[in-house]
Amino acid sequence: MPQCDYLFDGNSTFGTKHIDTMVKADEKIAEVSAASILAKVTRDREMIALAQKYPQYGFENHKGYGTKAHIQALLRHGRCEVHRRTFRVKELDKSSLFKF
């Protein structure tokens, strides 16, 4: 494993210092692979819990990915408090680039 403070899977440090990047690190480094699995399991559990609070969005099915069903739910119900404001949906945001 490379000697670094932190290793991001991908090719961007997102402007953070002391970070190395590696494309497909989750396929190459066991620790990154394990962290990826833990993150995905945690995310899936959180999405299932959010689905109980916001059943109209179907979080338990799409896990927050921008699927057709997710986009349709956003168009039908608008964003709720847990939606990222940076996730742009053309049909939902067409009146303004800066609508929040």
How would you describe this structure to a colleague?
This protein is mainly alpha-helical. The protein is 46% helix and 8% strand. It has helices spanning 25-28, 30-53, 59-62, 68-77, 90-93; strands spanning 6-9, 19-22. Strands 1-2 form a two-stranded parallel sheet. The radius of gyration is 17 Å and the shape is elongated. The termini are far apart. The model has no long low-confidence stretch (mean pLDDT 89).
Q: How much beta, percentage-wise?
A: 5-15%
Nearest-integer average pLDDT: 89
Taking pLDDT < 50 over at least 5 consecutive residues as the criterion, the unreliable ranges are none
The main β sheet shows up as: 2 strands, parallel
Report Rg: 17 Å
Trace the largest sheet across and list its strands.
Answer: 1-2
Q: Provide the succession of SSEs.
A: EEHHHHH
Structural class: mainly alpha
H/I helix tally: 5
Distance between the termini: 42 Å
Q: How many beta-strand runs? A: 2
Compute the number of structural domains: 2
Helix percentage range: 40-55%
Shape: elongated
